[in-house]
Amino acid sequence: xxTDANNLSQMPSSFARADFPSDFVWGCSTSxxxxxxxxxxxxxxxxxxxxxxxxxxxxxxxxxxxIACDHYHRWPEDLDxxxxxxxxxxxxxxxxxxxxxxxxxxxxxxxLDFYSRLVDGMLARGLDPWATLYHWDLPQYLQEIGGWExxxxxxxxxxxxxxVTRHLGDRIQxxxxxxxxxxxxxxxxxxxxxxxxxxxxKAALLVAHHVMLSHGLAVPIIRKxxxxxxxxxxLSLHPLRPASSSETDLAAMQRHDGxxxxxxxxxxxxxxxxIDILAHCANDLPTIRPSDMAAIATPIDFLGVNYYFPETIAxxxxxxxxxxxxxxxxxRERTGFxxxxxxxxxxxxxxxxxxxxxxxxxxxxxxxxxxEDVMDADGSVQDCARxxxxxxxxxxxQRAREAGVxxxxxxxxxxxxxxxxxxxxxxxxxxxxxxFQTQQRTxxxxxxxxxxxxxGAA
Length: 458
Hints:
By secondary structure, this protein is α/β, with parallel strands linked by helices.
């Protein structure tokens, strides 16, 4: 896809790796379910996403992740690609059901050994491992006894965290407890877009609370098991705009912000859940024990921010419980996924966090774009729209740094094309193109640009 005139007008005039500190973290992110495959290999058992994929109508192309990118067998090649691009860090997630395949509580040594080999492979290539402990793939056997609605799942998660960090903590310093608890709770239990596919707002709030509580309780376990551990959480956050300047749309935007952003940020920083949302959702609130909020607010070492797009909010009295609606504004640049491309939204979001919350190191743990990639006759993939997306967003990130925001790293989503959850294989986010029939990997133009940039020649 060629760069259009509008894109060119927004491109930074000069841009180089040297504009960032020498110790800045440059990485790419992946997740276990989306790339590993090996669904029944070495003792792995189904997660809620395996079950969701088997439910008719849930995955747009009726596919599944039983093979995905076959990363379980091809991980050396994939790590080689990350090294070739010039990354110095690699963010990955661990599949809970590879570690605990059933309710017996007995760890699966084959699963632990796989991640041990994977981490050793990162270190051998000069890639600092960043481990995400939960990226949405709850064991199906736990879902069958209540999933994240069941407070006992917190205890199971803590056993899992303890086991993994004791086994790998001698080689991994940076740990992320959860990826995007909003998606776990709301997409999984409110709008039903993700596994387990419920449509129950009260359940979603309960899940959100239990996930955040499990995060807070996991932090001291990780620190106990890992010398010099750095522990954080990765939140999906969005800058917001009102659909109009009317009082009703402004109020709607505030309500949406309360659940979309503040519902997760505020308790992390010791403020409890937002009072305005507590009042608005009084009939749907979970039971909160006296010690819960203090546990959630256990200090963390960094905040992971996943930024993709801003949201435009309108008042919608017929859309309970928040009475808000997402508006799609015509004429704005969009990715192949339909997400608005707004590089300056990244700066705006980062400055908002820095202004509204206590000082904390921030890492962009995900940022990227899906486009309709096509392999040309010469075997190349000319994804210049994605290349330009990265250039413009990194320039925005640098402007945030210049404004005083303590941003210490950036992880592109994603290293390779993968199984994109409910979209199946219809969306491609990778710096590397994957032919899902042959599993051949081909670096895209965006990957080549990143390699040139990280070598200091862009």
